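Technical note accompanying the year-one report. For the benefit of new consortium partners, we illustrate the data format agreed upon in the data management plan: each record pairs a sequence with a structure-token string. No post-processing was applied to the example shown here.
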Amino acid sequence: MSSYNLLLFTLMGIVAGASFYWRDYNNIENGTLFLIGLAIPTFIATFLAGLWKKSTHISVPSMVLLGILIAFILRLFFDSFISVGDLPAHNLFPLEMIVGAIICIPAAAIGIGVVYVIQRLKSTAVSN
């Protein structure tokens, strides 16, 4: 895959991560919001990237996940050093990253899995 595509998938992940982390981060205590607000953009970004490139290669979901991680880290630095200057507000950021990964990895796997099933159904429909 070209570096342009990998960069594009990473940007899709940044947008997916930013749609949650930068929108309603203060209401993160609500676990359902955290689960839905992070899993759905991850699924959509991975699904659209896989459909667009017609690829189920591991680089598609991994670049989307990298973009989400970048969005999280940018929000962490923004909160800690630029806007609030309150570093103790994110004293559990490794735990936040682990919880985010637990939510995002299955969502990305499901997104690329759905693309795989669609491709298989198209290939069997064409061959019949």
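Partners are asked to follow this layout when depositing records. The chain has four helices and no strands.
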